[in-house]
Amino acid sequence: MILAASVLEGDRLALARLLTQIENDTPEGRAALGELFPHTGQAHLIGVTGAPGTGKSSLVNRLARYYRQPGEDQAPRRVGVVAVDPSSPFSGGAILGDRVRMRDLAGDPGIFIRSMASRGSLGGLARTTAGVVQALDAAGFELIMIETVGAGQAEVDIARLAHTTLVIEAPGLGDDIQAIKAGILEIADILVVNKADRPGAKSTERALRGMLQLAHPIRREFQHHGLVSQLSRGGDSQPPAESSQDDEELLWIPPILQTVATEDTGIPELAQEIERHYEYLQATGDWQRREETRLKAELEQLLQEALLSRWWASMTQSRYQAVLQNLVEREISPWEAVSTLLDGGES
Amino acid sequence: MILAASVLEGDRLALARLLTQIENDTPEGRAALGELFPHTGQAHLIGVTGAPGTGKSSLVNRLARYYRQPGEDQAPRRVGVVAVDPSSPFSGGAILGDRVRMRDLAGDPGIFIRSMASRGSLGGLARTTAGVVQALDAAGFELIMIETVGAGQAEVDIARLAHTTLVIEAPGLGDDIQAIKAGILEIADILVVNKADRPGAKSTERALRGMLQLAHPIRREFQHHGLVSQLSRGGDSQPPAESSQDDEELLWIPPILQTVATEDTGIPELAQEIERHYEYLQATGDWQRREETRLKAELEQLLQEALLSRWWASMTQSRYQAVLQNLVEREISPWEAVSTLLDGGES
Question: Which fold has domain A40-301?
Answer without folding.
Answer: Rossmann fold (3.40.50)
